[in-house]
Design goal:
Distance between the termini: 98 Å
Helix content: 40-55%
Shape: rod-shaped
Radius of gyration: 33 Å
Number of helices: 5
Length: 260
């Protein structure tokens, strides 16, 4: 059974909602004031969520959930219509915490959040037979601890996701590198055809034609090597292309000295 406004005011007065204000009490819930946000860059007073982004929110109030009660953190109706969703645990009897929760932007627009307007509300309900006092990893959490002692259990999953992200990034780099390498190949072929046609029309010697072609091949091989080095980051391919390009350039220079 949900606690009504009279009972919630009693929790404020008794200190069970530490830092609470009577003006924030609703018919069956209490509006949590925002203390700060936790992003990848740390604690901040405001946050701008792009579509799909999430942020953890720390309320001003500290909950001392009485024995025989549980607390649920819920998103305010206005925030639901704004395009936010909320994730929060069920707070057990005897749990002392700042009641951190996570909000996610599920809309197609950017949403700016600050401390001026409440985002969530907390509702209290009675537990049959009083329940068992909470004594878990997130007990007495007044400052955001992230995974806390669950990091040993959840850490491998997080590392696995990070590995998948790196794998996808590697695939993306290889795709870009392959596209750029194809452009380099097409450019090299086009240049070779033009240079060869120009040399033949000028009645150049076969040795000079080979010299010019080797210079073109060497130059584009070095270009492809740079692409592999910067974009794909494939050491073996980079070295192979660099060796081929270097050899072609050196040979073309030697031939040019001999021919001319």
């Amino acid at each position: 059974m949900l606690l009504c406004d009279k009972g919630i005011k009693g929790l404020v007065e008794s200190g069970a909602i530490e830092g609470g204000r009577a003006s924030s009490v609703g018919p069956v819930s209490y509006d949590l004031a925002t203390r700060c946000f936790y992003t990848r860059d740390g604690e901040t007073d405001r946050a701008e969520l792009m579509p799909g982004d999430s942020v953890f929110v720390a309320p001003v109030e500290v909950l001392h959930v009485p024995q025989g009660m549980a607390a649920r953190v819920l998103l305010k109706n206005s925030r639901i219509r704004q395009g936010l969703s909320l994730d929060a645990p069920l707070y057990f009897p005897g749990h002392t915490t700042r009641a951190f929760f996570r909000v996610t932007n599920v809309s197609a627009d950017a949403i700016a959040l600050d401390r001026t307007r409440p985002i969530a509300q907390v509702a209290f309900e009675t537990v049959e037979d009083g329940g068992t006092a909470y004594d878990g990893a997130f007990a007495d959490e007044l400052d955001f601890r992230g995974l806390a002692s669950y990091s040993d259990v959840l850490g491998p999953q997080v590392r696995e996701l990070e590995a998948k992200r790196d794998e996808v990034a590697g695939i993306e780099r290889r795709m870009y590198g392959n596209v750029l390498a194809l452009f380099a190949v097409f450019a090299a072929i086009f240049t070779l055809v033009n240079v060869s046609a120009s040399a033949l029309s000028a009645a150049s010697s076969p040795a000079w034609l080979v010299t010019v072609d080797l210079m073109v091949i060497g130059g584009f091989s070095l270009l492809a090597s740079a692409i592999e080095r910067i974009v794909v980051r494939d050491g073996r391919a980079t070295r192979a292309l660099a060796v081929i390009g270097g050899v072609c350039v050196v040979v073309s220079i030697l031939l040019a000295l001999i021919v001319r």
